[in-house]
Design goal:
Distance between the termini: 16 Å
Largest sheet: 18 strands, mixed
Helix content: 10-25%
Order of helices and strands: EEHEEEHEEEEHEEHHEEEHEEEE
CATH architecture of the largest domain: Roll
Number of strands: 18
CATH superfamily of the largest domain: Diaminopimelate Epimerase, Chain A, domain 1
Strand content: 35-45%
Length: 303
C-alpha cells in the first residue's frame, strides 16, 4: 500500500491569562494555517478539544489575520484566543515589542502590542472596540438563570447592563463572594436568556476579591453545552472594565490598572488586565491584556 502524503503544521497549546502552567484558560494555536479550509479547521478544533483553536494566517490589510473555532463551530472573535495566539507569536519571535501591530478578524481590524522585559515577554494587549451600553434585563429572570435569589443581585447600586466592546455580554453584580461560589447556572435558562437578549454570555461579578491587586472577581456563563463556564474571558472582561469606568464605579487613577480575577471555582485561577482611556465623559480606548504559558508544542497532520 502506498503511504498517504500528509503535510504538517506547528501547533501550540497555551494557558492564557496566567503565569502558571495548567491554570488560566487553555487555547490551541495553529501557525501558518493559510492552506486550511474551514472544514479542516473545524475538524482540527474538534480534535484538539480546547475551548477555542486560533488559526494564524497571512493578511493583506494587517500584520496578521486570525480565525477562531470552538470544537463545534466558528466564532467571530475570541478574547482569550487572541491573547493566547499573540503570546505564542511573541514567544516564537514572529511579532515583537516596541510598536503597535494590526490584527485582522471577522469583526474588523484590531490593534495589539507586546510588552517585554529582560526576561522575555511579559504581557500582550489587544485593543477592543469602543463600548456600547444598554440597561437591559429582568432581575428575576437573570437571578433564576444563574441559580440565586433576587436579593443576591446588587442591581440597584450597579444596574444590569448589556455591554459590548466587540461582543455583547450581560453584566450582573453579585453581593458577595459566598453568593458567587453558590452560583449554579441553569443551562436551558442561560441559553434562552442569551438568545433573547442577543448576548454571548452572562458575566457575573462581585467587589469581594481573593487577590490583593484585583478590582473585581468574575464568573462568565455561556450558552454552550460544551463550555458552561469560562475560566477567563477576554471580551467579557473588556465589557466589564468599560462598564466600571463608564459609570465611575472605580477611582480615575485606577482606570488603566483594572484586574479581573476569574476561574477560581473551576480550579484554573486567571488574571485578566484592562486599561481604559477616558477623556472627559467619553471612553476612547479599551485594552485587555495578560500573560500566558505554553504547555505543549507539536505538529498537526494535514491529509
Amino acid at each position: 500500500m502506498c503511504p498517504v502524503s500528509v503535510a504538517e503544521l506547528d501547533v501550540l497549546k497555551v494557558d492564557v491569562f496566567t503565569t502558571e502552567l495548567y491554570m488560566g484558560n487553555p487555547a490551541t494555536v495553529v501557525l501558518g494555517a493559510d492552506g486550511l479550509d474551514e472544514v479542516m479547521m473545524q475538524r482540527i478544533a474538534h480534535e484538539a478539544g480546547s475551548p477555542v483553536t486560533a488559526y494564524v494566517l497571512r493578511s493583506r490589510k494587517a500584520d496578521v489575520r486570525m480565525r477562531f473555532f470552538s470544537p463545534f463551530a466558528e466564532e467571530p472573535l475570541s478574547g482569550h484566543g487572541i491573547i493566547g495566539a499573540l503570546w505564542c507569536l511573541a514567544q516564537e519571535k514572529i511579532v515583537g515589542a516596541g510598536t503597535r501591530h494590526r490584527l485582522e478578524t471577522q469583526v474588523g481590524v484590531l490593534s495589539f502590542s507586546v510588552e517585554e522585559t529582560a526576561e522575555g515577554t511579559e504581557s500582550v494587549w489587544m485593543t477592543q472596540r469602543r463600548p456600547m451600553f444598554a440597561r437591559e434585563g429582568d432581575v428575576k429572570e437573570v437571578a433564576s438563570a444563574i441559580g440565586i435569589g433576587v436579593d443576591s443581585v446588587f442591581d440597584r447600586e450597579f444596574p444590569l447592563s448589556r455591554a459590548s466592546t466587540g461582543l455583547p455580554f450581560l453584566l450582573v453584580s453579585i453581593r458577595s463572594m459566598d453568593v458567587m461560589e453558590r452560583l449554579s447556572p441553569k443551562q436551558a435558562e442561560v441559553t434562552h436568556l442569551c438568545k433573547e437578549m442577543d448576548v454571548a454570555g452572562i458575566m457575573a461579578f462581585t467587589w469581594s476579591v481573593m487577590g490583593t491587586e484585583s478590582t473585581v472577581h468574575a464568573r462568565c456563563f455561556l450558552p454552550s453545552p460544551e463550555t458552561v463556564e469560562n475560566p477567563a474571558s477576554g471580551m467579557a472582561s473588556g465589557a466589564l472594565a468599560a462598564y466600571l469606568v463608564e459609570n465611575d464605579f472605580i477611582p480615575r487613577e485606577n482606570f488603566e490598572k483594572i484586574v479581573i480575577e476569574q476561574g477560581h471555582f473551576l480550579g484554573r485561577p486567571s488574571l485578566v488586565r484592562a486599561r481604559i482611556e477616558k477623556r472627559g465623559g467619553t471612553i476612547r480606548r479599551v485594552e485587555v491584556g495578560g500573560s500566558g504559558r505554553v504547555s505543549f508544542r507539536g505538529r498537526v497532520m494535514i491529509p
